[in-house]
């Protein structure tokens, strides 16, 4: 906390700066045209006119205005601002500043005739500079339109750091503890991204041939991928398309997804995002993209066709291509915070438009409330912030064609004033919205604030990333579970978390790995994180990996260790894909991708993160891929593996069999005592005889029954297959001890037979008779 004398000195300095800026602005009245370096063109340059326009819709919308004149309507909500200028940029960087003089319900607006799609623009917003009350207006800073449909942002810059001009405060102020309170008067226009005017809406025939797959939740298999990383090294994609939306739309990329059998891709963030200064200083970039700055704009860095609006059409083309292959598109979205960070972060958009309106501020309004670990938190209970988010979501559904969303740190969005509230405005608006309530909604059900862990708490319509599934399955296969109670819940749909309020087993998105953490291969090869390449002294990333390296840390030439690692990978994959709930795979796990032990590769836009497609030519990659495809085909063919209702566990007529039963190695049903005892072997019986629900014709759904035997111990075990009335015989369809997984083993055992289960293995049987 600065002393009174220091605060007074800063205030005096601020008054002088404000006076100087006012003088300079006064000189420019009547001469609004200048380039990004402050140079003015010669006399006679045309000056656009501004008509009143309309306050809605927000953003820059090209349309035909009064008297049939075409142009663009600009509308910006800037509560508390004193003046707003729209700034137009030509190809040379020359800037034309036009005041928006119309103000309707805190929305500044104006129609500029002749402004067409492709025009680059931004805003300058005037107002008080008083950080102690949260006021951080600074007209020297060009601001990105929150509603910009496209952003022209160069990806190839290499400043070594963000230039000081992009900060609203004097970053290099000698008294660093109060640096954020001193307004910086340098022009940021040459250094910040600019919005691009695009055609509003879509031609009538643009989506005429598009058919959304509309895959039911219970039938869904999610494949989490990164647009750039998935396509960057793919040999079947033309080099100029690699790393782009067009690359993901290429038949070579889609062919892999179809052969695998997934029903949806979940794309890591594709909203326009920015790179953090601390990464640029280390020669790195934000690779994952959880640093959004434009909620309507496809990230320009993933466009092969251009950044003057072409990225919008390219993204739509990708969606149509995936839909044509029967694959849904789910976006990982980051509405909980923005790239502007805390009080020492850059001023790129919302901070300079209305800092107090867009962000949660504590009683010390100079700071930011941070439930995200990223410096700031959007103030979702504010109507205009809620409007921004829901307008963005509807836009991506109705105009960009996407099928759902995964909400990063969703608990932060569900906070009312302070606490997480499942009746919060955000969740209430989503529940009643006629567009959004019909798409797939996935919550990452936690944030970093107090009370932020909310797994199992989101209301109906929502599914959730179930990290308790991840932890239980990892712990079982590394031999760290004290008993199997938690594992039983996770394998059967997590009814303890989701059997309330009409929720179903598919409320649980089951996963063993995700983008955040070890890959599947690293999970069985490393116990400790190895994040040195991130440049943070290996301090970043979680310490809680719940991993087992099979006896050797990292890569090894030991054939026995590598064979065990391949088997453990197959065990984890098989467990995931026969569990009740919605499985999520991570791109590359099906071919043995490694990040070399890096469990936080958010800044690794390199071979560390990109998929190495040559792995599919190796025995390891071929075996994993074949097993994954076989298991997904099996899951698709058998409704008992993708149930729409929870198991009852009660005996069913006529022979008293249960729809779900658990067995010990002795072939006996587990007792209450068995659940509380340490165990490394578990038999899971799923009955396909009487599956709740009806098919599309109203007919009863029946299926084969299955027995899954999971054995995590390093020694073999004798397992007695239950005899009649459970089954007359058992056909072995999956055996994870086999390196070759292209076809089923096909061995048949009589009921009552004792089989030897090899060390650390999963055996999946189809019951006969």
From TrEMBL:
Q: What is this protein called?
A: Glycogen debranching protein
Which BP terms does GO give this entry? glycogen catabolic process
A Gene Ontology molecular function term for this protein is: amylo-alpha-1,6-glucosidase activity
Listed NCBIfam families:
glgX_debranch
User: Which keywords label this protein?
Assistant: Glycosidase, Hydrolase
Which CDD domains does the record associate with it?
A: AmyAc_Glg_debranch, E_set_GDE_Isoamylase_N
> Bias regions of kind Basic and acidic residues — which residues?
9-38
Glycosyl hydrolase family 13 catalytic domain span: 224-635
Q: Which InterPro entries does this chain map to?
A: GH, GH13_cat_dom, GlgX_Isoamylase_N_E_set, Glyco_hydro_13_N, Glyco_hydro_b, Glycogen_debranch_GlgX, Ig-like_fold, Ig_E-set
- List the PANTHER family hit by this protein, alphabetically: GLYCOGEN DEBRANCHING ENZYME (PTHR43002)
For region Disordered, the annotated ranges are: 1-53
Q: Which domain of life is it from?
A: Bacteria
The family annotation for this protein states: Belongs to the glycosyl hydrolase 13 family.
Does the keyword Aminoacyl-tRNA synthetase feature in the UniProt annotation? no
């Amino acid at each position: 906390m600065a002393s009174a004398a220091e605060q007074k000195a800063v205030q005096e300095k601020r008054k002088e700066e404000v006076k100087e800026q006012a003088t300079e602005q006064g000189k420019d009245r009547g001469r609004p045209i200048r380039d990004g370096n402050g140079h003015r063109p010669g006399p006679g340059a045309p000056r656009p006119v501004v008509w009143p326009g309309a306050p809605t819709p927000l953003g820059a919308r090209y349309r035909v205005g009064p008297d049939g004149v075409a142009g663009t309507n600009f509308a910006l909500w800037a509560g508390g601002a004193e003046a707003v200028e729209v700034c137009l940029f030509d190809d040379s960087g020359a800037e034309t500043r036009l005041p928006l003089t119309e103000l309707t319900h805190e929305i500044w607006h104006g129609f500029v005739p002749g402004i067409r799609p492709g025009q680059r623009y931004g805003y300058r917003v005037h107002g008080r500079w008083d950080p102690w009350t949260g006021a951080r207006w600074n007209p020297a800073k060009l601001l990105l339109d929150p509603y910009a449909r496209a952003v022209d942002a160069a990806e190839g810059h290499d400043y070594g750091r963000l230039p000081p001009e992009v900060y609203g405060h004097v970053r290099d102020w000698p008294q660093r503890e109060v640096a954020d309170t001193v307004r910086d008067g340098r022009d940021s226009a040459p250094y910040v991204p600019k919005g691009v005017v695009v055609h509003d809406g879509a031609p009538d025939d643009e989506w005429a041939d598009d058919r959304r797959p509309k895959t039911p939740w219970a039938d869904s298999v999610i494949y989490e991928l990164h647009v750039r990383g998935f396509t960057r090294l793919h040999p079947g994609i033309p080099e100029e398309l690699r790393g782009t939306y067009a690359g993901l739309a290429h038949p070579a990329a889609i062919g892999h997804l179809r052969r695998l059998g997934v029903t949806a891709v979940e794309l890591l963030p594709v909203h326009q995002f920015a790179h953090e200064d601390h990464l640029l200083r280390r020669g790195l970039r934000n690779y994952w993209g959880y640093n959004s700055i434009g909620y309507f704009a496809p990230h320009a860095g993933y466009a092969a066709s251009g950044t003057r609006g072409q990225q919008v059409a390219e993204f739509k083309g990708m969606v149509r291509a995936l839909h044509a292959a029967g694959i849904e598109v789910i976006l990982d979205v980051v509405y909980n915070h923005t790239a502007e960070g805390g009080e020492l972060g850059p001023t790129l958009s919302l901070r300079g438009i209305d800092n107090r309106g867009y962000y949660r501020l504590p009683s010390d309004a100079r700071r930011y409330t941070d439930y995200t670990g990223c410096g700031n938190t959007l103030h979702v209970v504010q109507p205009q912030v809620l409007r921004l988010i829901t307008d963005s979501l509807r836009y991506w559904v109705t105009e960009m064609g996407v099928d759902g969303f995964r909400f990063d740190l969703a608990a932060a969005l569900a906070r009312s004033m302070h606490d997480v509230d499942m009746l919060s405005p955000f969740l209430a608006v989503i529940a009643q919205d006629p567009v959004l309530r019909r798409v797939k909604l996935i919550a990452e059900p936690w944030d970093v604030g107090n009370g932020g862990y909310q797994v199992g708490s989101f209301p109906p319509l929502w599914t959730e990333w179930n990290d308790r599934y991840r932890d239980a399955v990892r712990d079982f296969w590394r031999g760290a579970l004290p008993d199997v109670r938690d594992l039983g819940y996770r394998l059967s749909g997590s009814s303890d978390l989701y059997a309330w309020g009409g929720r179903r087993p598919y409320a649980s998105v089951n996963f063993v790995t995700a983008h955040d953490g070890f890959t599947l291969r690293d999970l069985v090869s490393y116990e400790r994180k190895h994040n040195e390449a991130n440049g943070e002294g290996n301090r970043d990333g979680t310490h809680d990996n719940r991993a087992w390296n099979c006896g050797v840390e990292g890569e090894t030439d030991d054939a026995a260790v590598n064979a065990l690692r391949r088997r453990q990978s197959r065990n984890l994959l098989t467990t995931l894909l026969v569990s009740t709930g919605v499985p999520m795979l991570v791109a590359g796990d099906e071919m043995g991708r490694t990040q070399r032990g890096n469990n936080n590769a958010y800044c690794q836009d390199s071979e560390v993160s990109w998929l190495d497609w040559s792995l599919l030519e190796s025995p390891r990659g071929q075996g994993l891929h074949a097993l994954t495809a076989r298991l997904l085909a099996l899951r698709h063919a058998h409704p008992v593996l993708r149930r729409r209702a929870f198991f009852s566990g009660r005996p069913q007529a006529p022979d008293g069999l249960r729809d779900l039963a658990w067995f010990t190695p002795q072939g006996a049903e587990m007792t209450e005592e068995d659940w509380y005892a340490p165990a490394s072997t578990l038999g899971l019986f799923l009955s396909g005889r009487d599956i709740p629900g009806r098919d599309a014709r109203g007919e009863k759904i029946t299926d084969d029954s299955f027995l899954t035997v999971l054995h995590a111990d390093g020694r073999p075990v004798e397992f007695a297959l239950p005899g009649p009335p459970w089954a007359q015989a058992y056909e072995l369809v999956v055996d994870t001890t086999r390196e070759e997984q292209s076809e089923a083993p096909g061995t048949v055992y009589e009921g009552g037979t004792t089989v030897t289960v090899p060390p650390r293995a999963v055996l999946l049987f189809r019951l006969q008779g």
